[in-house]
Amino acid sequence: xxxxxxxxxxxxxxxxxxxxxxxxxxxxxxxxxxxxxxxxxxxxxxxxxxxxxxxxxxxxxxxxxxxxxxxxxxxxxxxxxxxxxxxxxxxxxxxxxxxxxxxxxxxxxxxxxxxxxxxxxxxxxxxxxxxxxxxxxxxxxxxxxxxxxxxxxxxxxxxxxxxxxxxxxxxxxxxxxxxxxxxxxxxxxxxxxxxxxxxxxxxxxxxxxxxxxxxxxxxxxxxxxxxxxxxxxxxxxxxxxxxxxxxxxxxxxxxxxxxxxxxxxxxxxxxxxxxxxxxxxxxxxxxxxxxxxxxxxxxxxxxxxxxxxxxxxxxxxxxxxxxxxxxxxxxxxxxxxxxxxxxxxxxxxxxxxxxxxxxxxxxxxxxxxxxxxxxxxxxxxxxxxxxxxxxxxxxxxxxxxxxxxxxxxxxxxxxxxxxxxxxxxxxxxxxxxxxxxxxxxxx
Length: 443
Fold this sequence. Notes:
This protein is mainly α. It has helices at residues 3-47, 51-79, 81-97, 105-119, 122-130, 136-147, 149-167, 175-197, 210-230, 235-239, 242-262, 265-270, 277-283, 285-305, 309-326, 332-350, 363-377, 380-395, 399-422, 426-429.
């Protein structure tokens, strides 16, 4: 078996072995994060929540996430994914199920904060974990496939949550309470299974042949040494690194748009026309079906061509335009098309971002850096829902807030385009070329 055949066989085996389960984990994680958007169609009326109360509570998740993100990612580096990822999943599953007992605005705020604290470290932990398995030229595609768990969670979660809300027996609990109990319990079960499935890295992968294991370990070690020769960082130095902080602000803009849309999607779509809660919930799946297709196509084309800048800039700007237009048109069909374009643009540009920190950070510094980027970025998960809630109460519609969210995702695209264009150092240029091709800072 020559080197190319060995590489294809090894990466294919790794991908089929770990990515489907990681997608399942992300599906459960994101479902527990955003199912409050479906619950809101019933819960807000039952508990007397205004749009402001819901928007503030939905967003406060990100404050808990921000405070515990970096410590959680460092713990993952210390204890390994096999221990820490299940710990995160079981904890957040218990907290998510506890939403069934929310009874007023204060309890809602507290539980959303605790859910953020419990989930902190999961997404950047998995991004860091993928870097332990996939060489640089395959990392973007692997990350894109993993992040498919996000649109899948809404694509499947929308009819699932809607079915529970519509058909759950009104015995002991209300329909939205049953939804939280069922979906939170699912996270606990998957977390227990994760302990038996995950491995620390390829050196522990008994399902690889000796030849495959040696090739993968050596390739990853060679890439680690190459990055360290370009410049290495300590943990504290990483937290003040200019590139890390710049990337943190850029992804903050993207996530502001992402969660500003996601946590309000059922209510925004219901405003497009005269429809029931069930119809709005089911239609919520459509933008994420479009987003899932766009994510895979954009990532594969970007990896095939070795170009990153325009594969981030163009989807971000087109997506921003879609968000800005979705609430100003009078046609429900055009509004639906616009929000599909918006969701696709946000996520297709988002997936190519996450391999960037790993191009110049290794080891504990990578864990800390990715954790910091995601924790600051997820503050956008507070800002976005809050903007929509405030605008809905103040203006009576979402037009102003969706224009702001559209501008935020477009700004993200411009910032990353500038980052990749102006960065002349080899460690950042790595993001613009697959392994084995000449490095170039311009993409």
